[in-house]
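The material for today's practical consists of a large collection of protein records. Read left to right, the C-alpha cells trace the chain's path through space. An example says more than a description, so a record of this kind follows:
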Amino acid sequence: MDDMFRFTDDLGPAKIIHIHQAAVPLRAILVVDNVAAGPSIGGARLAPDVSVDECFRLARAMTLKNAAAGLPHGGGKSVIFGDPAMPAADKERLIRAFAQAIRDIRDYIIGPDMGTDERSMAWAKDEIGRAVGLPRELGGIPLDEIGATGFGLAAAGGVAQEFCDVRLDGARVAVQGFGAVGQHAARYLAEKGAVLVAASDSQGMVSDPAGLDLAALRAHKAAGGHVADFPGATAGDRDAIIDVDCDILIPAARPDVIDAGNAGRLKARLILQGANIPVTAEAEALLHARGVLSIPDFIANAGGVICAAVEYAGGSQSTALAAIEEKVAHNTWAVLDRAAANGTASREAALAMAVERVRAASALRRFG
C-alpha cells in the first residue's frame, strides 16, 4: 500500500487531490480529511519541501482541532510548493492559480498558514469567493494582526498551570519560531506575568536568562532583522532553543521539531504547542514519562481556526476573542481533567475526546 495511506482510517481522508499546472508553474496538494460536521477549514501552506504525508497529517490535525473546538466545520489542508520569500507578483500569480484550481472543491475553505497571509486570502477570495483570514478591508478578522492563535495559547496556559508545577506569573518562556504565532503568544503570556528568556527563527536563536525586551525584539523582527542579530543578548544556533533553561516551551514553527532524539534535552515543564504537529508521538510519550505536561496542538493552538470560523459566520473581532477564550480554556480543562482521571497522557485524552465528537457528527450524516 502506498505510504500516503498509512494513516487512513474510518475518519478519512475524504479526498486527496494533486494539482499541477506547468504554465504557472503550480504544484500543490489538497487533502480534505473529514466533513461530517460541515465544510472543512484549513490553511494553505507555502513551502519548498512539503509532502502528501505532511499535508495529510495537518489535515487530520484540523479535523481534530475543529471537532474539539465544537465548530461546524471539518478538517482540510493544502500545501503549495514554493519559496514563501518569492517576489509578491509571483506569489500572487501562484495563489490565484491555486484558488482557481480548487474552485469546485466546495467542501474546502482556504485560510492562511505558513508562507501565506491575509493578502493571499484576499487573492483567493477574489478568484473563488471563499476564504477566511481576510484583511479588514474585506470584512475579515486579521488572525495575525490580533494574534488569535497566540491568544488561545495563553488561555491554554492559564488552565494548564492548574495541572502542573508551573505558574504563569514569573514563568520563563522560550519560543521556537518567533513569527506571528510565537510573538503574540509571548505577548499574551507576558501580560500574565511570564518572561521571555529565549526565541529562535530560521536563522538562529537569542537568549537572556534575565529576560529579553519583548517589545524591542518584536520591533527588531518587524524591521526585517533576525533574532540572532538582536543586540544585548546571547546569540546561538536555532536548534539550541531546545536546550534553554525555561519553564514553558512554545514550539511555533514546523512539524516534528521535538522528537525522540531531543525530547530528553528539554528543560521545560510545560509545552504549549503553537505549531501544528510540532511534537512526534514518540516524543510525546517520552515527555509524559518524564512528567512534562504537553498541551496538544489541536487543543492549544485552536485560536486561529476559531477566529476563522467566527469570521466565516459573519461575527466580529470581539466575538472571536471571546469564543477563543471560552473554547480553548474549556477544552484544555476537559482534556487535562480527563487525562488525570484516566491516568493517561494529555494527547491520548485529547484524541479520544475529539474522535468521539467527529464520530457523533458522522452518525448524524446520511453517509456518516
Notes: The chain has twelve helices and twelve strands. The chain has two domains: 3-140, 148-303+330-352.
